[in-house]
Amino acid sequence: MTEDEHLAWLKKIMPMVATLMTLGTFAVIRLASHDNGTALLVAGIMFGFVLFLYGARIVLGVKGFVVVIGAGALILWRLQRNGYF
Question: What is the model's pTM?
Answer without folding.
Answer: 0.79
